[in-house]
Amino acid sequence: MKRFHVHVGVEKLDASIAFYSGLFGQEPSVVKPDYAKWMLDDPRVNFAISQKCGAVKGVEHLGIQVEDQGELAEVYGRLKAADRPVLEEGATTCCYAQSEKSWIADPDGVVWEAFLTNGESTVYGGNPELQQLASANAAANACCAPAQAAPAPATTGCCG
C-alpha cells in the first residue's frame, strides 16, 4: 500500500518536533540532529522535517512512498506518462535511508519523488539538484515568468 510523503524545511528543529508531535499525537519514529520523521498510519503519511542551513523553509517536496518493486514500477510508469522530464536517480542515500527513487516537477514547479526505501543509513545523504527540475518546468509553463536569474555561486559558509 502506498504512503503519501511530505518533507518540510524548518527553522528550529526542536520546536517543530514538539509542534508536530502534538499535532500528530505521537513522537517521531526517527530523530537525528537535523531531521525527524513520523510514519503515520492515520492518515497514512511519511511526514519528515529537516533543518538545513540555507534550505527553503516550508514544503520542500512531496512524494509517494511504495512498499515493493511492483508498486515502484507502477508509480514510475505514471511519472513517465505525466509528460514531464523525469530525473531517475536510482539507488541513493537520502534522509538517513537507502532508497531507489525518481523525481518529477508539476507544471508549477512543485517537486515530487517516487521511492522505495530499502534500509537505514547513518548519514543524511543528499538530493540531486532539484531546483533545476522545478525551475525548468515552472518557467516553461508560466505565461508571465520573469527571466531566470543565474544561480548564485556555491559558498563554503555554514552549509559547507
Automatic annotation (TrEMBL):
One Gene Ontology BP term is: response to cadmium ion
Task: Please name one Pfam family that this protein belongs to.
Answer: Glyoxalase
GO MF terms here are: dioxygenase activity
* Residue span(s) of domain VOC: 2-117
Q: Which InterPro entries match?
A: ArsI/CadI-like, Cadmium-induced_rsp, Glyas_Bleomycin-R_OHBP_Dase, Glyas_Fos-R_dOase_dom, VOC_core
Keywords, in A-Z order: Dioxygenase, Oxidoreductase
Question: Which superkingdom heads the taxonomic lineage of this protein's source?
Answer: Bacteria
Key word Oxidoreductase present: yes
UniProt key word Oxidoreductase: yes
Q: What is this protein called?
A: Glyoxalase/bleomycin resistance/dioxygenase family protein
Give the taxonomic lineage as stored in the record.
Bacteria, Pseudomonadati, Pseudomonadota, Alphaproteobacteria, Sphingomonadales
